[in-house]
Amino acid sequence: MSVNPAVLPLEDDAREVLQGLSSSPKKLPPRLFYDQAGSALFEQITELPEYYLTATEQAIFERHAGSMVQAAGAASTIIELGAGTARKTMLVLRAALAQHRSVTFIPVDVSSFALDVAQQRVTTELPQVTVHPLVMDYTRKSSTFSRIPGRKLVLYIGSSIGNFEPMAASALLRHLRSSLAPGDSLLLGIDMQKPVDILLRAYDDSAGVTAHFNLNILSRINREFDADFDLAAFQHCVRWNHHDSRIEMHLKSRTHQRVHIEALDLAVNFNPGETIHTENSYKFTSAMLNALASNAGLTIEQTWRDERSWFSVTLLRV
Ligand code: AVI
C-alpha cells in the first residue's frame, strides 16, 4: 500500500477513508452508507421481515405514544434527530396534539432531502403542527438547541445510538444534554440483546438487501473518490461479537487484489479473506443502558418495551 501525504489536508470523509483503508484491520465510516442509493436501500431494509427493529419499535409507539408524551411533561416542542420517514414521529406528534394547544416539530438531519420528506409528510397529515426543519450534523453540534424556547422532547429513535461505540455514544448524549435545559427529555430507541440467530438474520436477509446496502459503500467510494473497487470481488459478512455485544458488518475480499483510489493517491492490497469493517450495531442489556445514561448524566425515567423485550424506548430526563 502507498500513501501520499501530499494529498493532505483532506475533507473529513476523504481523511477517514484514507486512514480507514490504511489501517489494519481495514475499516470505513458507516455514515458513508447513506448516499441516495444507500438511504433508499436502508428504507427497504426497514421493511424486510427479518429486520424486526422497525416494526417492533413502531408497535411500541403505537401502544404507548400517549404515555410517552405525558411522561415528558409540558414539552410541546419535539425535536427529532435524523429525520426518517416520520412514521413513528407521527404517532408522537398526534399524541402531543392531544395534550398541548400548540406543537412545534423540529426535524434535524444533514440531508435537506430527508428534511423535505419529513416536512411534507407532517404538514400534509398534521397541518396544526408548526414545522421548523434544521439542516445540521447533530453528531458534531447540537448547541443550537439551547436557543429553541420552551420545554423540549428530543426523539432519538430507530436504534441509531447503537451505531456508535459506547464512549462516542455517551459523548453524543452528554453533548446533547448540555444543549438542553433541566426538565427537557430524550426518548431513546435501543435494540436489545436477543438470540444470535435472530440478530444474524436481521443483518443478512434472504433477499440480499443488506448485502447490497453494505456493498454500496464501495460504489460510493468508486464514484466520489475515483476508485476501482470491483463489488463482485467482495462479500457481505456479518458477525456477532459477544464480547462487545454488537453485530458487525464487514466486506470480505474474495481474492488477492489491489484497489486504486485515485482521488486519495492510494493503492490498497487485499489478501483473500481480508475484511473491511463497515459497521457496528450494539445490542443492549439493561446494564448497558444504565451505564450509557449515567455516563451521559441523564436520569432514566421510564422504559417501554414490546412483549418479547426485543426493543425498548426509554425516556431520559435532563
Ligand atoms: C441505522 N441503523 C440503526 C441500522 C442498524 O440496524 O444498525 C443500520 C443497518 N445496518 C444494516 N442494517 C441496518
Q: Which key terms come to mind for this protein?
A:
318 residues; alpha/beta; 15 strands; 36% helix; disordered N terminus; binds N,N-dimethyl-L-histidine
Give your account of this protein's structure.
The protein is an alpha/beta fold and 318 residues long. The chain is built from nine helices and 15 strands. The strands form three sheets. Strands 3, 4, 5, 6, 7, 8, 14 and 15 form an eight-stranded mixed sheet that branches. α2 packs antiparallel against α8 and α3 runs parallel beside α4. The radius of gyration is 20 Å and the shape is globular. The model is unreliable at 1-9 (pLDDT under 50). Bound molecules: N,N-dimethyl-L-histidine (AVI). The site of N,N-dimethyl-L-histidine has 12 residues, from α8 and β13. N,N-dimethyl-L-histidine (AVI) binds at residues 45, 53, 158-160, 162-163, 203, 210, 213, 279, 281.
